[in-house]
Specification:
about 375 residues; globular; 9 strands; 9-stranded mixed β-sheet
């Protein structure tokens, strides 16, 4: 619901392009984010430049706005913690957003307190998505100004890619073998340096992406990054490499009655979730990281995050924005979405600085939860 067609949407028309319904979920998520920003759940002054006809989009219901807020809050806090740790160690870091779609995170970081911590920000998605995003960026003076020197902002690969001093927008099908796709895109030197450096602390973001590919494909993708940062098991080489973190947001636990309704509704829109259906427990989300070579992993449902990982002042503020009379439905939906994260620390010297990267519980008074 928070990066997929709403349960209340009617089935869309049949399409010849089998990936078009998956790409449509990016538009759904962008419109949901726009709605949450307009209703003041979130501060995102950039999303309107990436949503077609933003001024004519209808606001989403409170349930979707709150879900979008909780999802964003959880991921934002983890990213903030990552950037803070990089700053404390005196290193710049990289963020690789896979299946980034219309996300605005680069612009939010680039205008925030940690703008100097970012060495490079890399986004990868279907070429149809990256072409559309590159065009939106080129048409927006506000987005372009933040990218830097206009002479250093270049379209590439027929308009499917865009490169700026710190920002790279790249096209690839993440379901394909990363050896055949990402390896050349990210690790082959362009001019002097490869886009992706294993010597920089690097954070991977998958926001409702892995659910749309098979477990085999997602595991292969995660394993490729682990191999790159662990130097394929060469401990001496790996000691020079920096930590690799990964955040995944997705649906899970779809084997119950509510989950089956979600799946059926998506199937009516020609969308399937081969990567989500096998993940029935929080433990299965954690195991995916550990099985791929990450050293530690954790996971929380959005329901958990809303109740224990959002400041009480924020909960009170959110409760005043809109009236919500569907609290039981909200809890049910949030219980079927999770944020999980894992970390690989190739060098023992980095253990003390990075091993405790995580979301942190907030102190709440004993009064009744505000929503």
């Amino acid at each position: 619901m928070f990066n997929q067609p709403s349960l209340g949407f009617p089935p869309g028309p049949q399409r010849q392009d089998s990936d078009a319904p998956i790409r449509q979920t990016d538009t759904d998520a962008a419109v949901a984010r726009l709605s949450a920003a307009q209703k003041q759940y979130l501060n995102d002054p950039f999303v309107k430049y990436l949503v077609p006809r933003a001024q004519f989009q209808q606001p989403r219901p409170p349930l979707i706005n709150i879900g979008t807020y909780v999802r964003t809050k959880g991921i934002d806090d983890l990213v903030e913690e990552w950037l803070s740790r990089a700053a404390k160690t005196g290193k710049q870091c990289q963020i690789v957003s896979l299946g980034a779609g219309s996300d605005t995170r680069f612009w939010r970081i680039a205008t925030g307190p940690h703008q100097d911590v970012i060495k490079s920000y890399i986004e990868v998605d279907f070429h149809e998505i990256t072409t559309k995003k590159a065009m939106s960026i080129k048409k927006s003076r506000q987005l372009l100004e933040i990218l830097g020197n206009p002479d250093e902002i270049k379209l590439a690969n027929g308009g499917t890619a865009l490169h700026a001093p710190k920002y790279h927008l790249l096209a690839a099908d993440l379901r394909s073998d990363p050896v055949d796709t990402l390896q050349e895109l990210l690790t082959q030197p362009s001019n002097e340096h490869a886009i992706l450096s294993a010597e920089c602390p690097t954070l991977l973001l998958f926001e409702c992406v892995l659910a749309y590919m098979t477990v085999e494909a997602s595991s292969r993708l995660l394993q490729w990054f682990v191999n790159y940062f662990s130097a394929n098991g060469n401990e001496e080489v790996a000691k020079a490499n920096s930590p690799l973190g990964c955040i995944v947001y997705e649906m899970f636990g779809l084997n119950d009655s509510f989950g089956k309704v979600m799946l059926n509704n998506l199937r009516a829109r020609n969308v399937s979730l081969p990567g989500a259906e096998p993940l029935t427990t929080i433990g299965s989300l954690i195991s995916r990281f550990l099985d791929s070579g990450f050293q530690t992993a954790r996971a929380l449902t959005l329901k958990d995050i809303r109740r224990s990982y959002v400041e009480s002042e924020e909960l009170a503020r959110i409760s005043r924005l809109e009236f919500l009379d569907e609290t039981e439905e909200l809890d049910l939906v949030l219980a079927h979405y999770a944020i999980s994260w894992g970390i690989l620390i190739p060098s023992p010297a980095d253990q003390d600085s990075w091993s405790d990267w995580r979301l942190r519980e907030k102190d709440h008074p004993e009064e009744e939860h505000p929503f």
